[in-house]
Design goal:
The protein has about 400 residues and is α+β, with helices and mostly antiparallel strands. It has 16 helices and 13 strands.
């Protein structure tokens, strides 16, 4: 039964970011919430393994404290969560490092900067090769839920009107000329006002809302002193909007996606085994199940580079090579054939790659029948039958591949 050492938490019922920390107060997992109180409470529910999966169960059982930071809106929680994950790279935020559809918010270094989304993988590659089609003033992210950041940009654009990527198209320039945001506008004061708006947007992305408010208040008071009451009124409206961000669209989308670790997500297990004959024709095997069903199309074979009578070395090499394929989905649970030693070596491979996936070892008796599972009992008990069955399938697959290679060598 899942239990926790964490004290009773008096968390607010408002948006924010929470952090599970280890015994040394280092971030283990960072998440955001529409309601901090409800979201964190859900981590200690009896059905956690069904709703969040083994990785999160493993994290909760090892956590010592939870800290949190309320934000004024879900929008601010999204931006803060991304910034903190990027800064601390928590071990259990695997999905946030693995998503290939991640997006940056790019602000170009142009006389009239543009703001738009760019696919992180493509932009990183272009910057590495020096082929980016634009100079960058700032970039924020990467944001791994592209749908959320698209909605967030729409909200921010109402607060801080900016030119987007389509601004290069002459068909869109008439709109920007109408609001004084066009490079064809020769009014230098208009450009300065636009650059000031972009700087305010940057402050918001940086989470410096207090500094942003102070600057806006200073600008509003200066406009009023110069009898520019229309400008002062616009700034007053912006200050009010900052404190009452209408992010209902974000809340709805966030709620719809909050089950990304839940039952709607395919539950994937991978089991590994090594086979050889006195160190000859050593091979590694990976078998896969999704939602309890074998997935033979995703099985993989590994020819071990060094033929040696060393199962641990073979397992280590197999796991390293498997992790060199980020295009294969990461599993929720890894199963290895062996005791605490094999499980520990598998965990060390994952730690070296900063990937948090629980590991279960399957020990055998003298009749080569599974008799004990090594690992967190909160993870092993609910899936005991599936773990043992997949371990047996890995053994069968490894032996078949080893015999295939051995027979081929004998025939040659």
């Amino acid at each position: 039964m899942l239990s926790t050492k964490l004290p009773k938490l008096n968390m607010p019922d408002e948006p924010g970011v929470y952090t599970f920390r280890d015994a040394k107060k280092r971030p283990m997992y960072i998440g955001r919430a529409t309601s901090l109180k409800d979201r964190v409470r859900s981590y200690f529910a009896a059905d956690l393994i069904a709703t969040r999966g083994p990785r999160i169960v493993d994290m909760v059982t090892k956590a010592h404290t939870v800290t949190w930071e309320p934000t004024g809106s879900v929008l601010e929680a999204i931006l803060l969560e991304t910034e903190l994950i990027k800064r601390y790279q928590p071990f259990y935020n695997v999905d946030e490092r693995d998503d290939k559809s991640a997006q940056y918010v790019v602000i170009t270094a142009e006389p009239w900067p543009r703001v738009f989304l760019a696919r992180a993988r493509d932009l990183d590659q272009a910057l590495k090769e020096g082929t980016a089609p634009y100079k960058i003033k700032r970039r924020f992210g990467p944001y791994h839920e592209s749908g959320l950041i698209k909605v967030a940009l729409k909200i921010l654009r109402r607060l801080f009107p900016f030119r987007d990527k389509k601004s290069l198209d002459e068909r869109h320039d008439a709109f920007y000329r109408a609001i004084g945001h066009s490079p064809h506008d020769t009014d230098e004061d208009a450009r300065k006002r636009y650059l000031r708006t972009i700087n305010y947007l940057i402050l918001f992305f940086e989470g410096k809302k207090k500094i942003l408010r102070r600057r806006l208040e200073k600008q509003m008071n200066a406009a009023a002193k110069e009898l520019q009451f229309e400008e002062a009124g616009q700034i007053r409206y912006l200050l009010h909007a900052l404190d009452h961000i209408n992010d209902m669209a974000l809340i709805k989308r966030d709620i719809s996606q909050s089950g990304k670790f839940g039952a709607s997500r395919a539950f994937r297990m991978e089991a590994y085994d090594i086979a050889h004959l006195s160190g000859m024709e050593t091979v590694g095997a990976m078998v896969v199940s999704t939602n309890g069903q074998l997935a033979p199309a995703e099985y993989r074979k590994f020819k071990i580079s060094r033929n040696a009578n060393n199962d641990i070395a073979g397992l280590t090499e197999t796991l390293f090579r498997r992790l060199n394929h980020p295009e294969w989905p990461y599993p929720d649970l890894i199963i290895v054939d062996g005791n605490e030693t094999q499980a520990k070596h598998a965990e060390n491979v994952l730690k070296a790659r900063r990937i948090a996936i629980p590991v279960v070892g399957v020990t055998k008796n003298e009749r080569h029948v599974a008799d004990r599972l090594v690992g967190n009992p909160d993870l092993t008990e609910p899936y005991k039958a599936e773990i043992i069955a997949l371990n047996a399938e890995a053994h069968r697959f490894a032996i078949a591949y080893h015999r295939q290679r051995r027979n081929k060598r004998l025939l040659s």
